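Good day; I would like, with your permission, to put a structural problem before you. The record follows directly beneath this note:
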Amino acid sequence: MEIVTTIKDLKSLLGELRNEGKSVGLVPTMGALHAGHASLVDRSAQENDVTVVSVFLNPTQFNDPTDLEKYPRTLEADCQLLSEHGASIVFAPSVEEVYPEPDTRQFSYPPTDAVMEGAFRPGHFNGVCQVVSKLFGYVEPDRAYFGEKDYQQIAVIRRMVDDLQLKLEIVSCPVIRDERGLALSSRNKLLTSHELDIAPHIYQAMKDSRSMMNERSLKDTLNYVVERVNAVEGLQVQYYSIVDGRTLADIATWDDAESIVGCITVFCTDSGVRLIDHIKYK
């Protein structure tokens, strides 16, 4: 496994591999890797000759400087995990390497990027599009792999790929959960032991709500999830939205879309960590 820190070295290495006719997969990450990331690397290694994993904590997608400061940084452990899961190249650039000057590009894909995280974290998805488009330009992958835990992010990136007419396949991979159902996340490392105990209630509430859709209205189902999670001391729902699974537009009834997804963000009140998750209703 090669570790490179400059765009020049990355492109040089990939140029040699491409001259040999090798296919390339990309797994973009912000580091603090866990089994969820490992599953993406495993998938890419199965489907491509070369797997590039970027480890870059992108500042432009953080609208809260404190959140950026607290984000875990574990590059040495990340590289160890990646070497065990078949990564070919780790791209770990500095902020100055990726942003030698401010990126002023603006990306806008309403309603997909305007609701939920887009509404509560202004500029977040613009920063995501800035860095992911840069990574796509550096690597020129045949396929790029993203975890479905960040369901809205994948939808936005698909819109960006269509907009920029990029020739690559976006591969979405299932959420990896612990034995109690908590979606694995780099931010889980910031949770207190009590919060790790109560956080699985988020997914359990959503999972139980799926059985209601044949008997209760969409609004009643939404309210059920919010009330049940808020009833757990230490958890506070920021939003729960039940939306069109393709566009992420709000819907009013179960018949309004062929694909329906519930997306949630919850504050853990002791640590202040925001946890996101989702569930597919149909």
Notes: The first helix runs from residue 7 to 19. The chain has two domains: 2-173, 186-280. The chain is about 40% helix and 20% strand.
